[in-house]
Design goal:
about 150 residues, alpha+beta, Alpha-Beta Plaits, five-stranded antiparallel beta sheet, two-stranded antiparallel sheet, 7 strands, globular
Amino acid sequence: MPTPVYAIALGSNRRGRHGSPEAEIEAALAALGKVVAVSPVLRTAPLGPSKRRFANAVALIESDEDPPALLGRLKAIERGFGRRRGRNWGARVIDLDIVLWSEGMWGERRLTVPHTHFRERGFVLEPLLAVAPDWRDPVTGLRIRQIAHRLARR
């Protein structure tokens, strides 16, 4: 049986101990484990109150962890990079989110897969399109390329 694959969104808009936001993403990729594909890094305008531009990417990783276990590991990586809980949309050294899971959907109080808002976020869809254009969203049944096309038309 093949190992499950996750699409992980990576974002940074603050220098950390590894250097620039791009360097923080590179270091986070090394911490993720079995990375099978990585998108190019995209520079995007911030959402919300932050003034700093973001570096964004998507990685596909293989993992036997269930979504809550992987989420716990991602949060530990964020803490290790110096991320602290604070206001939403603020500057951050690293942000790691589970976007999709090859096993379909997962839903519980603190975690929903696929990510609830990924279909509306070009800074996630554009890198995701580079590594998984034919991956189907288990909620809508649409391929990533179709979702990205619809968002671009808006």
